[in-house]
Fold this protein.
Amino acid sequence: MSPYPDFDVAAPDKWALDWDEKTRRVVRERVEQVPRYRFFSVDEARTMEAICARILPQDDRLPADRVPLAPWIDERLYGGTGDGYRYEDMPDDRDAYRLALRGCDESARRLHRRTFAELGPGEQDDVLTRVAAGEAPGGSWAHLAGKRFFQELAGEIVATYYAHPTAWAEIGFSGPASPRGHIRLDLGRHDPWEATERRPQSSVEIVRRAIERKHHDGGAAHASGGPTQ
Amino acid sequence: MSKPPVDGQAGRARKAVDVLIVGAGAAGGVLAKELAEAGLTVVVLEAGPHWVPERDFVSDEKHASQLYWTDPRVTGGADPIELGANVTGRGVGGSTVHFSMVALRMWESDFRVRSIDGIADDWPISYADLEPFYDEVERELGISGPMRWPWGPRRGPHPYREHPLNSVAQLFARGCDALGIGWAPAPLATISAPKDDRPPCVYRGFCIYGCSTNAKSSTLVTYIPKAVRAGAEIRAGCMATRVNLGPDGMAVSVTYRRTLVDGTRADEEQAAGLVILSCYSIETPRLLFNSAGPGWPDGLLNSSGRVGRGLMVHPSPMVFGRFPELVYQYKAPPTLALTQDFYETDVSRGYARGFTIEPIGPLPIAFARAAQAGLGLWGSELRELMLDYDHYAGWGIVGECLPSDANSVTLDPEERDADGLPVARVTFAWGQNDRALQDDGVARCREIADAAGAEVTWMADDTAHLMGACRMGSDRATSVVDRWCRSWDVPNLFVCDGSVFVTSGAVNPSLTIQAIAARTARYIASKAGGGSPRDWSRDGAGQAR
């Protein structure tokens, strides 16, 4: 649960003062105009949504309140825009995603006898953990470096989620700050229009566990995740 | 292959200008202003758009992808470099519209690494050669920094007062103080008081996504407007595809693809008395390779075989600490303090050269990606960690990378861009020294975080800045350009950008790129004698000393 339950990065007064017109336009489009699928097939979209729901779970929200993730990946792949480079051991982004979605289904069938989207959360995490470790079974993975792809995939999902004002409010990020800027820069101080922490919590234990896992198995494994509290 | 240009100049060169500069970034902007103000006619070709910050720079991490070079490239080798956002720019101002503004000089020893450390190579120029141009560029940009600088060569105060420390810099200073490590407020290319028609920084913290208030001293809002006032033409949306030589072996023109209003592309050609390539460490070699022809089978200017060789990138791993205090790491410029206590070789450390440590203040996407990659986190744990975003502060190194011939830019044998031109292939692997230096840098960063009171720390790998791939030198057999950035092979063709670096130094390279450009401009203007530089062949290739 967010430490900043009463913070709204897009509250009307902030929206008016901290958002210049062009930023308002870009973010409003992102929130209101979620693209329809044009690149993924119906089956691929279902698998992609299932993957997004494990990499960035939003079980704590009603489906209508969840930040859409897979449609934006579809939109980017449909438009063919890249980030400016391709790893020499990776195919073109579009081919990589298609191969990987097929690969997730192949792995799911081999390990749990169903398609990826049909698996339970624990089984899905099992498949993704193996993909991240470069150890997923299935013919498609012979043509795609799973470890590298998982990094790209997780990076894109995470980047899509934390581009949304819902995610900004949840983590206490104050947003565009243009043109108002910030005045109180000192440690422990914040401007009245920034988030106020109501329910302190700490990530220390999560980090310690993650580091322990990294040391234990070279960083590939992942503890199965449940819904965010 | 391409559509005829609208103005009907296909196959014919536009009216010749004195100087044609390719690339309107850190170096191109400086060259354009200085040469136009010296009375030369100047055209600058820029592949990307001519930004208007108030109109185009959105305060949004994701939207900023418009600022990066996102045309296809291939990256490989044992340690492939992340290209795109990390190390490239596209549009007038180049990557100075999204750099972190840290304006540090290289040290005297940076130019003499072979003499001092017995490795890499010496530059053909010294710190003293660049010093007056560092001064000049710092004044022009209005660098804001401390009165006294505790490291490196003796120097005067920065032109503008330093910025206040934000919370991350305060924690960094606290850690350094506890350990007896020296630190100083960071000199930044963002103004702390009004300059010309620009207002001072308001500490929004969106600096590396394009400054929409114009406090940031990118070349887009400093050198370029002055270049235009002095008569230079900035021709945006023009991607240079080939440097053309005449029968006498001199550069005569550059062919480029212009993006027309309707989105179609047309070939045009601009003739010039002198051509300067300022396209940075990937596109400069690529343009030279794509300009291969009779007499230049391995690429233009490549008689030494050094074009594309010796590419360097700064190792810049980051360490983040979780603090009991609320940090709000996203406010103000990301780097407001730094230390250079570990800059030069210390034999007790077991590796050569060193690093600068600089605080950082990633916005949510960058922080989440670092946590994902650094900790291998995903799922509900990643989302939970992100709820703690406001309690983190981090710093990373800018570390020296030793040059290696194996680290290179070449043309990909198969892949073509939308115009049908071969794309660049970047091949990179860390050397043993680079790795040892990174490990030690990370250890120092952790110590500072621990001493500042971090409850837990974690690290994520990263790289920053490109340098080299068309190095300067004093021997034409082992370098592409001479000490004035003039090519050895074609007397009226210069390369002036970060690609001429011989070694990487351990500072953000932009100020040095700009000082080198200011020096090259002075040289060209003095040789041209205020007139036309069209007779450059007479004094022979690269003979100037």
